[in-house]
Amino acid sequence: MKRLAVLLLELCLVAIAVFAADWLQGVVDVIPKWLIRLPEVSYDAGDFWTVMQYFVAVHAVVLGLGQLFLGAWQPMDARRTVNELFLLAVAFAVAALLVFVTTTVAFDPQFVVGILLVNLVVFTLFYFAQQLPAVGVWRSLIAFLGALLRRVFSLPGVLAMVLAVSPGILAKLFVSNRDVANVITQIRIQLSTQEQGEWTVENAVGGLKFHQPILVQFPPGVTDEMFVLERQGRLLRVPWKAQGEPRLVLDISAKVGEVEVENGALGFAVHPEFGRAESTNQGYAFLYYTSVLGGEQVNYLSRFDLSAGDPAVVAASETVLMEIDRVDDGFHNGGSVEFGPDGFLYLALGEMSDKRSHQAIDQRLSGGVLRIDVDRRGGDVSHPIVNRPDNAETDHYFIPNDNPFVGMDGALEEFFAIGLRNPFRISFDTENGRLWTGEVGSTVWEEVNLITRGGNYQFPFVEGREATGKSKPSALIGKEMAPIYTYRHTAYERAVIGGIVYRGDRYPQFRGKYLFGDNYSGNIYALQADGEPVESVDLVGKANQYAQRGITSFAETPDGEILLTTLGSASGSQGEIVRLVPKDQATIAADPVQVVEEPVGLAEAQSLYSANCSRCHGTGGRGDGPDSKQLGVSVPDFSSAEFQASRSDADLYAVIERGGSARGLSAMMPPWGLALSDAEIHALVGLIRAQAENTVAR
Ligand code: HEC
Fold it and tell me: Which of 15, 191, 445, 590 is most buried, by the most CB atoms less than 10 A from its CB?
């Protein structure tokens, strides 16, 4: 009876500590900044009550067991009180881990650690409150410290302390290590009871993987090939439902330099006249990328001429339109480059961690959508640049005459819309020209915005639909615009990725819907894209990768498919181009050979053989090619029955793919796996077999 009463009292104290910690984290940094730099987290009342329930429940179990095995807590007993403090540490660790891993609350370490601190202080105070009047300061202090030391150097004490710091270590790993974050996020998503949607994704390009793909784009009029931009600064042409291998078009990775946080090659668009033989713009493509060399960051908007063909020549064709010096922290670059139906180029810029750019358009290019005329048409269409920014060199473009801030005193006339924090992806609705963006928010709200001429999207004084407490400028530039849709951060949902308004015929249920996602949770959503604000959206499905490896973009193919890119890890090529498919039509990841490649015919194999193999192996495969004498090893005679009988197709395949060393043979036989596709190697194996049959027939 007494134990139960004590336990109830203790649980009341724990509940009070949760309230106190909630208050405390608003007043001080419970975990000092110099110890760990934690991201700011904002939890709401629902999150608060979830934490309350978990903490009270776990404490009931842990402290209850304590009462059972150690007897009721008597505050005047130093040893028993110290034991109770250690039990509090254990209960804290268990509760914190459970909240962190199994719930979707916005997890604020400051708040949670505060609960433990308040608990420890309150329970200790109970001891002193009872002991001080009885035995005085010194004796109560000595008894307490003695009991504490004994417990600290005991096995249960050490175990309890290790357990107590484990949430901290996990939190540290979570913010500093992508792989850990990914695993935890995956567990969270598995354990969360949220619905999953009716759609799923599958690799759309025959199992090909990429190194951190950022976006895909089909050039105008092209249906069988797309551009793929990889984050480290590589641009590839990749066949779409057609035969062939990815081709490198441009590689600026040396200039992109260090790719960390939100850096890299972020935006890409080809000129609307791309590929038109009669146009001087036929080879032009525009790239927005960051360059971090020696710790200093510069962001570039550049034009490249892809018609040169050779990647090195393409790289040398760079013409810089904007060279933006920025704070070197890598965050909030924005990124999208898109041509509007008006033929002007739109560039979405983040606020680049620079307060000076907030709600100002007279000094710095950042925190908005820019609109420029790269064709420098002049006349009543556009005019040369009037005002230059403090943070950037600008050249090689004009300002459209109807830009909203043209003629405004001191304004950088490039601005089309302002007050944006980090509009990572923008896209035009191909049916009505409306410009959509997913705007990544700071600690509480994500936004989907419809960008209008002269719109002011209220950052930093409003986020979502909520005032942030930052002051609103007295003379507001542009017209205040609220988001179309906004959602609150949860533990695993916190970075919106703007998508596309679907206008294809393949999936009528998505026609006229804006499809977008969350990079972190992998959730894919749809909302009615008629321009009216919405309160809720449909969960369509989930991408295949989460956390920092998650969704980076959406695209619609000319044949009406919906593609997403997922980033994958920074260390390897695990990024993917996936298509959205109804769950019941998803196929199991198919063998690459069967999907992208049609079988290579004998004639084609013959020409591959002549080009690559005959100089050593001879035109008839007898091992008598012109180079065979200089190799120092004998080249086998493919036409001999003995050779044919002693090798399996797999043996031949292995040697062609990986070279002589694949089967302990001479390295004079080079590997071809990088130069030839699977289907081509298969065809060559067939050809080598045919060389024997010919001989027999002869
Ligand atoms: C630079 C010369 C050279 C070229 C080019 C070359 N090979 Fe070879 N290849 C060799 C030599 C030498 C061997 C024998 C190695 C040994 O027996 O140690 C060999 C062996 C082989 C074998 C037999 C492996 C075995 O089981 O004994 C196959 C199959 C083969 N090459 C296929 C090809 C094909 C297909 C190509 C063209 C795509 C090609 N080679 C191009 C030099 C060449």
Answer: 445
| End-to-end alpha carbon distance in the chain | 103
pLDDT recorded at residue 613: 87
The residue among 93 and 641 whose pLDDT is bigger is: 93
pLDDT in tens, 339-392: 999 999 999 999 998 998 899 999 999 999 999 999 999 999 999 999 999 999
Per-residue pLDDT tens digits for 144-177 = 999 999 999 999 999 999 999 998 888 778 766 6
* Among the listed residues 597, 598, 579, the one whose alpha carbon sits nearest the alpha carbon of residue 589: 579
Distance (Å, whole) CA 524 – CA 542? 6
CA atoms within 13 A on the CB side of 18: 21
Q: How many residues does the chain have?
A: 698
pLDDT mean over 439-445: 85
Tokens representing 264?
Answer: 């890299």
Pocket residues for ligand 1 (CB within 6 Å)?
A: 612-613, 615-617, 627, 631, 633, 635-636, 647, 651-652, 655-656, 660, 663, 665-666, 668-670, 672, 684, 688
CA–CA separation, 550 vs 192, rounded Å? 18
Distance 604 CA to ligand 1 centre (A): 19
Atom of ligand 1 nearest to the CA of 663: 26
Answer yes or no: is pLDDT of 698 > 50: no
CA distance 115 to 454: 47
> Which atom of ligand 1 is the closest one to the Cα of 631?
12
CB-CB contact of 163 with 90 (8 Å): yes
Residues near 597 by beta carbon (within 8 Å), at least 6 away in sequence = 206, 243, 677, 678, 679
Q: Which two tokens stand for residue 496?
A: 């919106």
Question: What pLDDT digit, counting tens, does each position of 473-482 carry?
Answer: 999 999 999 9
In ligand 1, the atom with minimum distance to the C-alpha of 613 is: 37
CB 435 within 8 A of CB 457: no
**Residue 469: how many other CB atoms lie within 10 Å:** 7
**In the predicted model, what is the mean pLDDT of residues 183-203?**
76
Q: For residue 229, which of 128, 149, 306 has the smallest C-alpha distance?
A: 306
- In angstroms, the CA 84 to CA 237 distance is 65
